[in-house]
Structure formats: structure tokens, C-alpha cells
Amino acid sequence: MADVSANPSPPLDNELNVEWTDTLLTNIKDELPKICKYEGNLPPGLKLYSQQPVLLYRWYHKRKAEVRTIYRDSTGPYYEVGQTLEIPDDFEGWFELVPPDFGRVKYFESIEEVSKIMPVKFFTRTNVSGICVNNSDDNKQTYLQRKIPAGTVLKVDSTFKAKWRTCAEIGILKKKQKEWITREIQYLKCIDNKEQEILIPFTAKGKFHPVYQKGSSDSKCVFRMKDIFTDLTLPVKVRIIYGKPPVVPCIFTGMMVIKRRITEDVFVGSTITFKRHALFELLYQMT
User: Fold this and answer.
1) 271 contacts: CB under 8 Å, gap ≥ 6
2) Could you please report the per-residue DSSP string of 116-142?
3) What would the pLDDT profile of 58-92 be if each residue is shown by its tens digit?
4) Which among 272, 280, 276 has a CA at the least distance from the CA of 10?
């Protein structure tokens, strides 16, 4: 990599009259933005930009996991199948740890069970109904039914009891009377990602998992990929329970072994000598 400090917008019809200095890509991270010329092996899609000035204007760290799909035979042993996959640490999905017997991780089957543990946050794998609490400007509260879709993470706040009074008219023809019925219902008060209060009745059924918190040892926990990167010892076997699986031209069972972490420096750049500029990324693998 050769670099030079120059005007990033030179005339397109004039050659750059500069002296290039040889240096490594990682040596200029703290000097960006900078005009550079790459001299080395480039991926096929970037060879077009070799030996010509480009503008590198920022960089960032990118972490990803190297994983293999697991197939388990009904007789007991398991095999790594298919090609090696790379999953970024910001992958929008949730994982459970695979037990030694390769069974499924247990989960809470009702909100009442969640309330007995009171985790910091929990993840729902099924759609569930609750009540949304809205506070108006005149300090009045209104309650609206709210559908909570599968894949939602809720912060647990407290338990709550409410008494609901309903009225029904009974009688035949004109002999009608009003009858009032009072019911007490217990709720788990939760907060969604928009800081909205939601009340979910204890009687709600479904599949619920506590969300992993640093230091937690609960086997029911679910993990984001970044949690696995940060807190677990690799290799580790996991199963995806929610999220879009990677698109691969081979078998994918949903169960995988995470082999190792890969950290890369990603440099974002742009062409400067073309009439139409193109953005690109250069990857520099660290581990």
C-alpha cells in the first residue's frame, strides 16, 4: 500500500504528480482520510482498482464466527457437514446451547412461570397478547390490547394485579337487570424496546426464554451471537431458534459448532479518478 496526502478531488483529466510512500495498510488507520494506491493481491471484485489512486476515508472492526453445520445420526454420533460458514457478530438471530444429549433446551411455558424467576429480560418464541398502557397529557390512562409477535425481547419490570368490573344485562324480554362482575387478574409488567409499558396476564401460554446476561448459568437462556463471542469458550455447539438462517448451497440443520472468532479491520474507500465513483471495502484479517 502506497499513500500520499493530497487533494481528494483532483482534476480528472490531469495526472497526479506525487511521490508515493510504501507502508502497511494497518499503519494508516489513524491517519484517514488518505489517498492511497494499493499494490498487492486484491479480491476479484477489487482488481479493477489496483494500481490507481483511491480515497480511504474510514475503518471499523468487524467480527465474525467460523462455523460448521452439525448433522446428528439417530444412532448417536454427529458429523460436521457442508461448507464452512461465516456468521457476523451482529447477526439478527437467537441461539440456544446444545445440551450434551443433543436434546432441546427447556423453556417457560407460561408468563406465570416467568414471573417466578423474574429475569432481567425474556424472549418470546410465540405470539402473545397483552395490554398496552397509554398515559395522556391530562394524567389519564387508557388500556389497549397489544399483539406481541414472536421474536420480541421484553424487559421485566414487576408484577401487577388489576380488578376489572364488567356489566351484563340479564333477563327475558323487558325484565332486564344489570349484573356487575368483578375479576382480579395478575399481570407481568414489561417494557418493550420503545419504553412502552405492556401488561401480560399470568395465564398467557407460549415458549419463553430468559435472555442471557453476563455471568448467568440458567440453561434456558438464549444468546445473541455477540454474547457467544464475548463470554463463551469456543468451540461451542449451538442451535438457531429464531432468525433467518444463512443462505447456503448445502445442507443446513440449524445446529452448528462455532469453531473460532475472526476479527477483521474493514477499510471503506472510494474511487476518485473515474467519472462515476464507486464505494468499496478492503478487509484486513487480524485473527
Assistant:
1) 49, 52, 54, 55, 277, 278, 280
2) HH--SEEEESS-EEEEEEEE-TTS-EE
3) 888 888 889 998 888 777 778 888 888 888 888 88
4) 272
CA distances from 65 to 68, 71, 247 (A): 10, 19, 16
Terminal Cα-to-Cα distance of the chain (whole angstroms): 20
What's the pTM? 0.73
Interval 176-220: pLDDT, tens = 666 666 678 899 999 999 899 999 999 999 999 999 998 888 889
Cα–Cα dist 142/255, whole Å? 44
Local structure of 45: helix, strand or coil: helix
**Block residue for cell numbers 490531469:** 14
Instruction: Record the cell numbers describing residue 126, joined without a space.
Output: 410465540
Residue type, 276: R
Instruction: Check if the beta carbon of residue 36 is closer than 8 Å to that of residue 53.
Output: yes
The rounded distance, in Å, linking the Cα atoms of 159 and 189 is 6
Distance CA 60, CA 89 (A): 14
The amino acid occupying position 13 is D
